[in-house]
Amino acid sequence: MTGTNMSGDLRDPQRSIPSGTIAATVSTSIIYYALAVLFAASVDRSVLRDKFGRSIDNSMVVSTLAWPSPWVVTVGSFLSTFGAALQCLC
Asked: Which comes out higher in pLDDT, residue 13 or 84?
């Protein structure tokens, strides 16, 4: 809803706003799915199919690929969970 105050600048806002919203949703979905496929293609198949959650050297696969440190994924997971919990309070 960021650009709704700029709808007066459009020639045909009744057509442009819905098509822009759909285009943004579709392009975001394509990028999201492409990243998921590329991530899955970058990991060895036997590691992805381990049903016990263990990987090579008993480390998390995602943390091994993380930059600049393996702790980025662990801290990000906790912060994401904490942020979702804070949204439920309102």
From this structure: 84
